[in-house]
Design goal:
The structure holds 3 protein chains of 3 kinds. In chain A, α3 runs antiparallel to α4 and α8 packs antiparallel against α10. Chain A has 10 helices and no strands. The longest helix of chain A is centred in the first third of the chain and has 37 residues. Chain A has a single domain, classed as Orthogonal Bundle (MetI-like fold), CATH 1.10.3720. Chain A is mainly alpha-helical. By secondary structure, chain B is an all-alpha fold. Chain B has 2 domains: 74 residues, no CATH class; 238 residues, Orthogonal Bundle (MetI-like fold). Chain B contains 13 helices and no strands. In chain C, 31% of the residues lie in helices and 22% in strands. In chain C, β4 and β5 form a beta hairpin. Chain C has 2 domains: 238 residues, Rossmann fold; 101 residues, no CATH class. Classes of the chains: A mainly alpha, B mainly alpha, C alpha/beta. The interface between A and B is large, with 52 and 61 residues. Chain C: It is a peripheral membrane protein. Chain C: One of its GO terms (molecular function) is ATP hydrolysis activity. Chain C: Belongs to the ABC transporter superfamily. Chain C: Keywords: ATP-binding, Cell membrane, Membrane, Nucleotide-binding, Transport.
Chain lengths: 279, 334, 353
């Protein structure tokens, strides 16, 4: 059975894929799906803080904008941040892990100790420090997250490379005179891919949560961007009366992160049975 | 003896890791310098005044010299002055550390007390309805944004129902400061009113904070137990008629916990990190609130100090985990 | 009937999994008298270990399907789902176990002493009721009994020839050798003063050089203490050396049971004949038996050896009833080898030549 077919047989993974699929579609088609696309920037102060109704499914916010429309547009920000930040982390972490694992001893030691330094502080703390220094913007959030999350992929690839290095097929390739680069890219890297894919799916969820927390602390996209974390922080002063205002973005974050976690679990079961334990 | 060796070998890495951390954080906070002199001088200061301040604060020195000075002061426990509170950053941090540790430990206890038993139950009832529900709950626990959950709990239990205080750490003056942990201080002084107040303030933040950690522990414990439960020694113990509950809760759990304990360092990290955001919501007077205030004030040195302190706590916790590991898994010492 | 200690009667069971139902044991009958040392022999995968595990009650519950038959130990129904309290009293006390792999059968994170103590806490011969209390996690180990149990432990460890028993008890399992671990397992099997010890290939994980020592020790101590032993093995040589009698299994069926002399000198079942002949020192040299062991998912009807048996006829599609060619000798075959006829024996062996 194809990989996708096996994945879809796992109920959890199928739900996760569905959620992520919807997220991507929403992000792409937000301007057409949103009932009030202009509300990303426009405001109607006479309609502020209206409870959910047929016109405004998730009610309106403090500016009278449609919360539902803003959530749909927020998906764009979330997915942009997560995809680029995780992409950059993978692009930094994987080569470092590969080189460190392949050359072992000194080079490996230095590179892995460097990643230890980054792991010595909780990711959000480091991300806060970086994002604060650079100032609030989506680009800086992406940069902060990339700089803090790469060690996870480095560690993972390092461990896998170490394990693969002693295997016969790698030694055979070396004996046949393949260059180090060739062995790393053509022989070792493909064998670490499934672990990388699993870690990436789960990493997306973690990244989205951290990005939302940065937004909540005021370090994300500046207003009036419909970023979910920021929306929750804006909603705070209107609780408990305007409960929908905070509930909608909170649930959106929950659903999306859940989607990536479910997919990650499913991928792990399908791709990498030996990784089954733990997260 | 092997245990001492192992601990020493970890300690050797303590200093370079910490130094690396300081360098990284220092560099980060100096990449795009928001000019601290401008903040200190105030909005109406002239350029000349600012320049004088820059000179006085050592900001005109090359970065490497600034770093050397920072490091020299740091060794003596001097992290500089906070632009915001106007006090020594190190004393601010030490003053606030107990509040954060109290919250983190409370969340840790909740997470372990909830996560480990539920993980065991989930594993021994594998694929039952109970297991399915627990797995769904644990994966949900990892997907909730803690600041949002904090707000929702606060809205429901404090604002709507009025069961718990809205924010803060204690009402009134509280007990005399002995350990800095108000719960412990209240007990030490037999001040039951303060204890009640402290616990009622503590419960919501602790629950919020513990949720993702508990979820992680459920997943790890479940996986650990499943791995152990089919091993030969369980078969042997069963065949020899050891009581079933003893096999599960003593012999299997002890083995399963080996992988869980190595995760506790990580879990503590997530708790400590989560505390930053949760504290901000509950106005908990700990390091997290301090960090958020410093961010809002662009108080670079305070953030630097905060990051270093968190790094130290983090490294120490991981060291402790390694030591505990040698006690529960004697094979490590082989 | 009443003199038998263990009575397995017509036991049929199997496991259902993704590939369907695996019918592992098919109408197995096994009787043991008190003090008897019986070998349970057959090739790997013939159901020996499953039978031993069924008696011990350690088969995985969720996939297990019992199709019929009984296991009775000294009056206790070991299969009943209602007599669990009685079963708990039997297990570890009247029936003990020596596992196949002494390396992994100790719990790696407790000292040997802690594990032996735990056994004696529940299964000491002095304990009135060997069953499970309501709160085992909070049950005390009475101090006086603990002291007396300690002496028992030390003397038993000495009797299995372990040097410095006090030191060994303080060690973790990974700190002692494989041979010592198996001696410890024997000691633990003897400590509750059981009526029956089930030893599942107790020496296969050990060096050849110490296998004989360990088996000799097991026989000597069990005989001294009047415990019966059920020894599963695929090694006919060790069965010959230490057993009083032998039961042969093939593909989940018992085919023959005989006193050890009759088994080796006058085998009645064609499979037993082939098995003896296929030994390196047997008449046939290392010939092996042509054909393959049938799949448990789709076993042949009747005698499962029939597809590989040169004597098989249409009758063999039905499982033969036991017949008794001699005293204590049982065989399930329509066409048994005539014990007296050397020509027949030669024919069996010669068939492969």
């Amino acid at each position: 059975m194809s990989l996708f077919g096996r994945l879809m047989r796992d109920r959890a993974a199928a739900i996760g894929t569905l959620i992520i699929g919807v997220l991507v579609l929403v992000a792409i088609f937000a301007p057409w799906l949103a009932p009030y696309p202009e509300d990303v920037a426009a405001f109607h102060l006479t309609d502020r803080l209206q409870p959910p109704s047929a016109e405004h499914w998730f009610g309106t916010d403090r500016m009278g904008s449609d919360v539902f429309s803003r959530i749909l547009f927020g998906a764009r920000i979330t997915i942009t941040i997560a995809v680029i930040a995780v992409g950059v982390s993978v692009a930094i972490g994987v080569p470092i892990g590969l080189v460190a694992g392949y050359y072992g001893r000194f080079t490996g030691g230095v590179l892995m100790r460097t990643s230890d330094v980054f792991l010595a502080v909780p990711q959000i703390v480091l991300a806060i420090a970086i994002a604060q220094t650079l100032g609030p913007s989506v680009e800086n959030v992406i940069l902060a997250l990339s700089l803090t999350y790469w060690p996870f992929w480095a560690r993972l690839v390092y461990a896998e490379t170490r394990a693969l290095k002693g295997q016969t097929f790698v030694e055979a390739a070396q004996a046949l005179g393949a260059s180090d680069l060739r062995v790393m890219v053509l022989h070792i890297l493909p064998n670490t891919l499934s672990a990388i894919i699993v870690r990436t799916s789960i990493g997306m969820g973690a990244t989205i949560l951290t990005a939302a927390a940065l937004g909540f602390l005021g370090l994300g996209a500046p207003p009036p961007a419909p970023e979910w974390g920021r929306t929750i922080s804006e909603a705070r002063e209107f609780l408990p009366e305007a409960w929908w205002y905070a509930a909608a973005p909170g649930l959106a974050i929950f659903l999306v992160v859940m989607g990536f976690n479910l997919l990650g679990d499913g991928l792990r079961d399908v791709l990498d049975p030996k990784l089954r334990k733990g997260r | 003896m092997r245990r001492v060796e192992l601990v020493l070998s970890r300690l050797v890495w303590f200093v370079p890791t910490l130094l690396g951390l300081i360098i990284v954080v220092f560099l980060i906070s100096n990449v795009v310098p928001t000019d601290p002199a401008r903040i200190v001088a105030g909005e109406n200061a002239t350029q000349a005044q600012i320049d004088a301040l820059r000179e006085q604060m050592g900001l005109n020195e090359p970065l490497i010299v600034q770093f050397g000075i920072y490091l020299r002061d740091l060794v003596t426990g001097d992290m500089g002055r906070s632009l915001y509170t106007q006090r020594e950053i190190s004393s601010d941090l030490l003053h606030r550390l107990p509040a954060t540790l109290e919250l983190t430990f409370a969340a840790m206890i909740l997470a372990i007390g909830l996560g480990v038993p539920l993980g065991v139950i989930s594993a021994i009832r594998r694929n039952s309805l109970t297991d399915q529900i627990l797995r769904l709950l644990s994966i949900s626990g990892l997907a909730v944004a803690s600041f949002w959950l904090a707000m929702e709990l606060q809205m429901y239990f404090s604002t709507r129902l009025g069961w718990t205080p809205l924010n803060g750490r204690i009402s009134g003056f509280g007990p005399e400061n002995i350990t800095g942990f108000v719960v412990i201080d209240s007990i030490l002084q037999g001040d039951w009113a303060s204890l009640k107040s402290a616990l009622s303030h503590l419960i919501l933040p602790a629950i919020t904070l513990s949720l993702p950690a508990a979820a992680t522990l459920v997943r790890f414990t479940r996986a650990g137990v499943l791995e152990v439960v089919n091993s030969n020694f369980v078969l042997y113990e069963t065949a020899m008629g050891f009581p079933r509950s003893l096999i599960v809760w003593k012999y299997v759990l002890r083995n399963a916990l080996i992988s869980t304990v190595t995760q506790i360092g990580l879990v503590f990290g997530t708790l400590f990190a989560g505390a930053v955001v949760v504290e901000a919501v509950f106005d908990w007077p700990g390091l997290g609130t301090y960090a958020v205030q410093s961010i809002l004030q662009s108080d670079t040195k305070a953030i630097l100090g905060f990051s270093i302190l968190v790094g130290v706590v983090f490294i120490v916790i991981n060291l402790l985990v390694d030591i505990v590991h040698t006690f529960i898994d004697p094979r490590v010492l082989k | 009937m009443n003199e038998s200690l263990l009575d397995v009667d017509g036991l049929s069971l199997g496991f259902s999994g993704e590939a369907g139902f695996a019918h592992i044991l098919d109408g197995v009958t096994l009787r043991m008298k008190p003090g008897e040392i019986r070998g349970l022999v057959g090739e790997s995968g013939c159901g020996k270990t499953t039978l031993a595990s069924a008696i011990l009650g350690v088969l995985p519950r969720h996939a297990l399907k019992i199709r019929g038959g009984t296991i009775r130990f000294d009056g206790t129904d070991m299969l009943s789902r209602t007599a669990t309290a009685d079963q708990a009293r039997v297990r570890g006390r009247k029936v003990t176990f020596i596992p196949q792999d002494p390396f992994t059968s100790f719990n790696p994170v407790f000292t040997i002493g802690q594990q032996v103590d735990e056994l004696m806490k529940w299964k000491s011969p002095e304990r009135e009721n060997a069953g499970v209390p309501r709160h085992p996690l909070f049950t005390r180990y009475p101090r006086a009994r603990r002291r007396r149990d300690r002496e028992r432990i030390l003397s038993t460890l000495a009797s299995v020839q372990l040097p410095q028993p006090e030191q060994i008890l303080k060690k973790y399992p990974h700190e002692v050798s494989g041979g010592q671990r198996q001696r410890l397992m024997i000691a633990m099997a003897l400590l509750p003063e059981p009526d029956l010890i089930i030893a599942d290939e107790p020496t296969t994980a050990l060096d050849v050089t110490i296998q004989a020592q360990i088996l000799g020790l097991l026989r000597k101590l069990a005989t001294e203490r009047g415990a019966a032993v059920l020894l599963t093995t695929h090694d006919l040589g060790s069965a010959y050396e230490i057993c009083d009698s032998v039961t042969v299994m093939y593909a989940g069926q018992d085919v023959e049971a005989a006193p050890v002399d009759a088994f080796f000198n006058a085998p009645a079942h064609p499979y037993t004949g082939k098995l003896l002949a296929s030994r390196p020192e047997g008449a046939g040299g290392m010939t092996g038996i042509p054909g393959e062991v049938p799949s448990f998912y789709d076993p042949p009807p009747g005698c499962r050896f029939a597809p590989r048996c040169p004597r098989a006829t249409a009758d063999c599609k039905r499982r033969p009833d036991p017949s008794h060619p001699g005293e204590g000798h049982m065989v399930r075959c329509y066409h048994p080898i005539d014990a007296g006829s050397a020509a027949e024996a030669a024919e069996i062996v010669g068939a492969e030549r």
